[in-house]
Amino acid sequence: MKRIKWSELLIYLLSAELVGALSGIASGGNFGSFYQSLQRPPLAPPGWLFPVAWVILYALMGISAYLIARAEHPQSAAALKLYWVQLAVNFLWSPVFFRFRSLGGAAAVIVVLLLLVIAMTVWFWRIRRAAGLLNIPYVLWTAYATYLTIGILLLNQ
Length: 157
Description:
- This protein is 80% helix and 0% strand.
- By secondary structure, the chain is an all-alpha fold.
- Helix 1 runs parallel beside helix 4, helix 3 packs antiparallel against helix 4 (76-99) and helix 5 packs antiparallel against helix 7.
């Protein structure tokens, strides 16, 4: 087993967390009041849960990407490209939803994100099982976020 390159792991962790932080900044703040003003579907969580969940999920993403980067596999580079693409799409959701208040746009973004996250998780699983497993919570949360976003869209037309 390879030794952990702590500096490289830290770069992957921080880059994933930075995407989340920058997405929040690009969203313009005032998340709580807008979220509270919307009709929400059953099982919608309180607003405070979202940042907590995302900090954990970004950390898991960063660790999984690090594992793929360190894997000696011919498809690692392509899998990491998919990782960065899904991270870019992930970045888009908050500004589309909160800054632009485009519920339809946010629904389109989250559906694309869900498909990308599933594809990435499967690809990571095939390269390094632990990397795929680390993304299972992300798949589940993104599926839940898809339900919430589409539910909010339908309830607030």
